[in-house]
C-alpha cells in the first residue's frame, strides 16, 4: 500500500477509535448522573419537594389553649378558634389526607397530657426547648420569632431592657412553664423571682394585668406582641431591643408516628412558599 493511502487509513482508524472513546465517556457520565437520581427516587422523603404519605383519612386529635394571638385564639366576630396554626394544620391535613378533631385545655399540664398520649398533637405557639424533649417530641420549626418586651403604651419610667432589669421595683407578669416566664426569670435573676415575677394562669391574663397596671412588663414574641397591641386598641407597645429568637413547633407524644409525615408536609410548604404565605397573612396583614 502506498504511503499516502496507509496514512489515510491510519487517520480513519484513529478517528473511529476517538469517536468510540468519546461515546463511551458520554455514556459513563450520563450513567453517573442517573444512578444517584434512581437512588434518590427509591426514598421519596429525599425528593424536593418530598412525596407525601397518605394517612388515609386518619383522625388527628389536636389540642390548644387558644389564647395566643395570632397563632391560636378565639375570634369573637367569627365565633370560632382561628389563627396561623389552625390554617397551618388545615393545610397539613389537606396534603396528608387526615381529619382534625380540635380540643381545648389550659396550657398548664398540656405537655404532661401529651406525654400521657391524651392527644395526638398540641399547638399554641410552643417553643422547641431541649428540656421539653424529655416529655414530648417536636416537629421541625414552622417559624422562628423574635422575643421582645411588651409594656404599656404610655410607659415613661424606662425605655430599655437594661433600665427595666436594674429597677427592682418593676415587675414582670408571666405564665409559669412558658418561654415568657423563663426569659423574665433570666432578666431579673432567680434570687428575685418571687419579688419581681407575678404568675398568671394564661398569657392573655398576664397582658390584661399589664394594661391594668398590676405589672410593668410581659416578655412576648414580637408577632404575638403586635397582635395584642392591635387587639387592645394600641394600649401597649414593644421595646425596641430583641432579647433573642424562638423556634416554634408542633408537639407530639414521644415516639409518635405522625412526626415524620408532618415534617414532610412542612418541608413541602417551605418548598412551595405556603409557610411564607401564612407568615405574611398572620404576621403582617392580620389586624386584630
From TrEMBL:
Xref: SUPFAM superfamilies: Periplasmic binding protein-like II
Tree of life domain: Bacteria
Name this protein carries in UniProt: Basic amino acid ABC transporter substrate-binding protein
Residues covered by the Solute-binding protein family 3/N-terminal domain: 59-285
Residues in Ionotropic glutamate receptor C-terminal domain copies: 59-285
Provenance organism: Candidatus Thermofonsia Clade 1 bacterium
Keyword Signal: yes
Keywords of the record: Signal
Gene Ontology annotations for the cellular component aspect, listed alphabetically: membrane
Keyword Signal: yes
Amino acid at each position: 500500500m502506498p504511503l499516502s493511502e496507509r496514512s489515510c487509513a491510519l487517520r480513519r482508524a484513529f478517528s473511529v477509535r476517538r469517536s468510540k472513546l468519546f461515546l463511551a465517556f458520554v455514556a459513563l457520565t450520563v450513567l453517573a448522573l442517573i444512578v444517584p437520581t434512581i437512588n434518590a427516587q427509591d426514598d421519596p422523603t429525599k425528593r424536593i419537594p418530598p412525596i407525601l404519605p397518605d394517612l388515609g383519612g386518619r383522625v388527628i386529635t389536636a389540642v390548644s389553649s387558644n389564647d395566643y394571638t395570632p397563632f391560636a385564639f378565639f375570634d369573637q366576630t367569627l365565633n370560632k378558634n382561628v389563627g396561623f396554626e389552625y390554617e397551618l394544620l388545615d393545610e397539613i391535613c389537606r396534603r396528608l389526607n387526615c381529619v382534625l378533631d380540635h380540643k381545648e385545655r389550659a396550657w398548664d399540664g398540656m405537655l404532661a397530657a401529651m406525654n400521657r398520649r391524651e392527644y395526638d398533637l398540641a399547638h399554641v405557639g410552643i417553643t422547641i426547648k431541649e428540656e421539653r424533649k424529655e416529655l414530648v417530641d417536636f416537629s421541625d420549626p414552622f417559624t422562628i420569632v423574635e422575643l421582645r418586651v411588651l409594656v404599656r403604651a404610655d410607659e415613661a419610667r424606662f425605655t430599655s431592657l437594661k433600665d427595666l432589669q436594674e429597677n427592682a421595683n418593676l415587675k414582670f407578669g408571666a405564665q409559669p412553664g412558658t418561654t415568657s416566664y423563663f426569659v423574665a426569670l433570666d432578666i431579673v435573676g432567680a434570687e428575685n423571682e418571687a419579688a419581681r415575677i407575678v404568675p398568671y394562669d394564661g398569657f392573655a391574663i398576664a397582658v390584661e394585668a399589664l394594661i391594668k397596671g398590676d405589672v410593668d412588663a410581659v416578655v412576648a414574641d414580637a408577632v404575638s406582641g403586635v397582635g395584642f397591641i392591635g387587639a387592645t386598641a394600641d394600649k401597649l407597645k414593644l421595646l425596641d431591643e430583641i432579647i433573642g429568637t424562638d423556634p416554634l413547633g408542633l408537639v407530639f407524644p414521644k415516639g409518635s408516628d405522625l412526626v415524620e409525615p408532618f415534617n414532610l408536609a412542612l418541608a413541602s410548604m417551605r418548598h412551595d412558599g405556603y409557610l411564607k404565605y401564612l407568615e405574611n397573612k398572620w404576621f403582617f396583614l392580620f389586624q386584630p
